[in-house]
Specification:
This protein has about 500 residues and is of the alpha/beta class. The chain has 15 helices and 11 strands. The protein has an 11-stranded mixed beta sheet with strand order 1-3-2-4-6-5-10-11-9-7-8, with helices on both faces.
C-alpha cells in the first residue's frame, strides 16, 4: 500500500474516492504517527478514540455515496478552538481542565464536511508569541534541525503545534489562527503552507479571543491545493459572529489554474529591511523572477506606512487582549485560587493562571487604554492602522497581488530572543501589515537556508479575493518545487 503518511490531503481524498484505502486505515496511520512524534510536544490532547469513531462514520457515509469535501481526512485542531466535550486551554494554566459544552463554528464546519479530529495542538499561551515558547504545557519543537547542529529549534508561533504536526507528517492538515502572522510565520519556519484568509471569511465564534479585530482562522497544510480544499470547508457566513461576512464560499481549488499571465504582482520597497539576511533577499528576488517567467507583470509599489505597522500592532492587539482576558477571573470557569476576599481571589487566580508574556501584554494593553493615555496611544494607533489599510487600497489600483518574504530569518533555537521581547516581536515584521489591513495572505515554502532550514515567501491579496491569492501561490509553489522534508529519525513517542 502507498505510504499514507506521505500523502497530501488532496491525494488522500482521491485515494479514498478510488477505494485504495479507507478512512479508518488512513486515520490509524496518523494515530500511529501522532505517537511517533510525541517528542515534539505538539499535542496538548490526543483524541484517538474519537478519531476512530469519526473515521468509521466517514466510511459508512462513503458506502452510501454521501461524501463531504473533507470526508475521512485526519486533521489537528489548534487548542484555541472550542471543541464540544474536549478540553480547550488556549495553552494557559488558567483554562486547564475547561471542557466546552459547545463547538466552534469553524470546527463544526470541518466535522460537517467529514473531517476527523486527531487532537488539540499546543500553542503560545492565548496565541501570544512567535516561538511557541510561552505555552503553559511546555514549548513545541520544530521537527527541522540545522545542518550539523542538534539544537532544538522553535516552530514559530502561535500556531506552532499545528505547524509541527503537519511538517512531521502527523496530520494531513491543521487549523491555526493568525492575529499578526501566527499561521504564516510558523508555516515558513516548518516548510508548510500557512494561509490567513480575509478577516471575516471564517467565523470567530467559539475561538478563544486574543485580539478580536485581528484574529482569523485559517488552514495549515502541505500544499496550496490542500489549503484551498481545507479553507473551503472552514469558511462561510455565521450569524453568531457579527464580523463574519455574508458571502458565498467560492470553489477555491478551482482557482488553481496554473496560469498567472497578465497578473500584476506588486513588490513593496518598504519590505527591504536593514540587516535583512542576504539569503532572504536572494530568495525574494528569485521569487520575483519566477513570477516574471510565469508571465506576470512585476510592479514596484510603495506602502509608506509599513514602518509603523509593528508598533501599531503592539498597541492595538494588547489593548484588545486586555479587554478580552478580563473574563478570566476564577469565578465562572477554569482555574480558581482562593483568597481571603474576592479581590484576593481575582489577583491570586490571574497571578497564578497567566504566564509572563500574557501578563506583559495585559499590562501594555491596560496602560494604553487608561485615562490620559487612550488618545495618545490607542486612538493614534487606530488612525495609523487606517493609513496602513489605505496604502494597500492604493496599491490594489495598480496590482493584483503582492509578493514579500514571510519572515526575516529561518527558525531559531529554543531560548533565543526570550530575554528580548522586541527581538521576538520583530519576527512578525512582514506579516503584521496584512493583518492590520484585514487582508488574505499565504506563506509558501520556497527554499532552504544555508543551514538547511525552510524559508517562505508570502503572497498578499485583495480583500475576499482568495481565489487570485491561491492562483498566484500555486504558481509560486510549482516554480519553487520545494520537496524537502525534516529528518524524523531521531523522534520518539
Amino acid at each position: 500500500m502507498t505510504d499514507l503518511r506521505n500523502l497530501t490531503l488532496a491525494q488522500a481524498r482521491d485515494g479514498m474516492a478510488a477505494g485504495d484505502f479507507t478512512a479508518v486505515e488512513l486515520t490509524e496511520t496518523f494515530i500511529e504517527a501522532t505517537g511517533a512524534v510525541r517528542d515534539l510536544n505538539a499535542y496538548i490532547v490526543e483524541t484517538a478514540d474519537q478519531a476512530r469513531a469519526m473515521a468509521a462514520a466517514s466510511d459508512a457515509r462513503r458506502a452510501q455515496g454521501q461524501v463531504g469535501a473533507m470526508d475521512g481526512i485526519p486533521v489537528a485542531i489548534k487548542d484555541l478552538f472550542c471543541t464540544k466535550g474536549v478540553q480547550a486551554t488556549a495553552g494557559s494554566h488558567i483554562l486547564e481542565g475547561f471542557v466546552p459544552p459547545y463547538e466552534s463554528t469553524v470546527t463544526q464546519n470541518l466535522w460537517d464536511a467529514g473531517a476527523v479530529m486527531l487532537g488539540k495542538t499546543n500553542l503560545d499561551e492565548f496565541a501570544m508569541g512567535s516561538s511557541n515558547m510561552t505555552s503553559y504545557f511546555g514549548p513545541v519543537a520544530n521537527p527541522w534541525k540545522r545542518k550539523g547542529d542538534d539544537a532544538v529549534l522553535v516552530p514559530g508561533g502561535s500556531s506552532g503545534g499545528s505547524a509541527a504536526v503537519v511538517a512531521a507528517r502527523a496530520a494531513l492538515g491543521a487549523t491555526g489562527t493568525d492575529t499578526g502572522g501566527s499561521i504564516r510565520q510558523p508555516g515558513a519556519f516548518t516548510g508548510i503552507v500557512g494561509m490567513k484568509p480575509t478577516y471575516g471569511r471564517c467565523s470567530r465564534w467559539g475561538i478563544i479571543a486574543f485580539a478580536s479585530s485581528l484574529d482569523q482562522a485559517g488552514p495549515m497544510t502541505h500544499t496550496v491545493r490542500d489549503s484551498a480544499i481545507m479553507l473551503g470547508a472552514m469558511a462561510g457566513h455565521d450569524p453568531k459572529d457579527s464580523t463574519s461576512m455574508k458571502l458565498d464560499v467560492p470553489d477555491f481549488e478551482a482557482a488553481l489554474t496554473g496560469d498567472i499571465r497578465g497578473l500584476r504582482i506588486g513588490i513593496p520597497k518598504e519590505y527591504v529591511m536593514d540587516g535583512m539576511p542576504a539569503e532572504i533577499d536572494a530568495l525574494w528576488k528569485t521569487g520575483i523572477d519566477w513570477m516574471r517567467q510565469a508571465g506576470a507583470e512585476i510592479v514596484d509599489i510603495s506602502l509608506p506606512h509599513t514602518k509603523y505597522a509593528l508598533p501599531t500592532y503592539y498597541i492595538v492587539a494588547p489593548a484588545e487582549a486586555s479587554s478580552n482576558l478580563a473574563r478570566y477571573d476564577g469565578v465562572r470557569y477554569g482555574l480558581r485560587v482562593d483568597g481571603d476576599t474576592m479581590q484576593d481571589m481575582y489577583e491570586n487566580t490571574r497571578g497564578a493562571g497567566f504566564g509572563a508574556e500574557v501578563k506583559r501584554r495585559i499590562l501594555i494593553g491596560t496602560y494604553v487604554l487608561s485615562a490620559g493615555y487612550y488618545d495618545a496611544y490607542y486612538l493614534k494607533a487606530q488612525k495609523v492602522r487606517a493609513r496602513i489599510a489605505g496604502d494597500f487600497n492604493d496599491a490594489w489600483e495598480k496590482v493584483d497581488a503582492i509578493l514579500t518574504p514571510t519572515t526575516p530569518s529561518a527558525a531559531f533555537a529554543q531560548g533565543d530572543k526570550m530575554d528580548d521581547p522586541i527581538a521576538m516581536y520583530l519576527n512578525d515584521i512582514f506579516t503584521v501589515p496584512a493583518s492590520l489591513a484585514g487582508l488574505p495572505g499565504i506563506s509558501v515554502p520556497a527554499g532552504l537556508s544555508a543551514e538547511g532550514l525552510p524559508l517562505g515567501l508570502q503572497v498578499i491579496g485583495r480583500p475576499y479575493d482568495e481565489e487570485t491569492l491561491f492562483r498566484v501561490a500555486g504558481v509560486l509553489e510549482d516554480a519553487a518545487g520545494f520537496d524537502a522534508k525534516p529528518d524524523l529519525s531521531g523522534l520518539g513517542g
